[in-house]
Sequence to fold (336 residues):
Amino acid sequence: MSELNNIVLKILGNGKGILAADESTGTMTKRLDSVGVPSTPENRLQFRETLFSSSSMKECIGGVILYDETIKQETSKKNKIPELISKMGSAPGIKVDTGAKVLASSPNEKITEGLDGLRERLKEYYKLGAKFTKWRGVYNISKSYPSKLSIHVNAHALARYSALVQECYMVPIVEPEVLMDGEHSAKECYEKTSEVIKKCFEELILHKVDLRGIILKPNMILAGNTSREKTPNEEIAKLTLECLKNSVPSEVPGIAFLSGGQTEIEATENLNLINKYNNTHFIMSYSYGRALQQSALKFWSKDIKNIEGTQKVFNHRAKMNTLAAQGKWSKDLENK
Fold:
């Protein structure tokens, strides 16, 4: 399994992070609608190809998570998308869950589906060039949630998925996302996230998953988006580190945070502080979607033929996050 560990280190080494470009067609349509661009397969591909062929792919992006539609598409130069990503020195990855559905017996919570037929799909994705995969479990926070049922079934699904992925020689990203929606405090987020992550590792160990060959993709410890509490960034960083130190086994090589509703700058600033205070051996990097793409998407929407300008915006954001993954980001560098 040392081969899987090498893939993790290639993806997250030297401050590199992951571009999460695995938005479903529905989600991507909403993003394009929001900037007034028609959501056609051609436009979706053109935006993504613009990012995948930018110079920061070589310097900052170690892996790209794709969606089923994208991994099978060809670029304007008739290369397969995974080939383009590999040529840029990055690893192609693929989202393999089929989405979060209502959890039976607990209608306010979700269970992620997609285990049926997964072994066969993984073989296909491996042949297409995927080196790693992603599966996301989602958890609500309130006085009653996440329930023991939700914590257990999502951890079980993440573990079964991970075992199947490693069987197919790929690295599983384990993403238990405790959502930012709600009025909860950062302390409540800390408690619930700790419980969720501990249960995930219990199940991963039970399913004999090699922890040296996975990437954990957790949320940062944040107060809810409708909370009255304003948590200082230093507090967010310290709580996040404490949570992970107490919940994640030492064999895990790397942690790549999701941005989870933070603005681009918040996601960068919080990652930077986490790395400033990081006194663990874990690599602490990023796996961002909107927090890497939003400014580039807005710029691109004004003139979808302005590839160079769009790449310049994306390169800046990627560079800022790679600096943050090394604790070297500052507001001065941001505004240069």
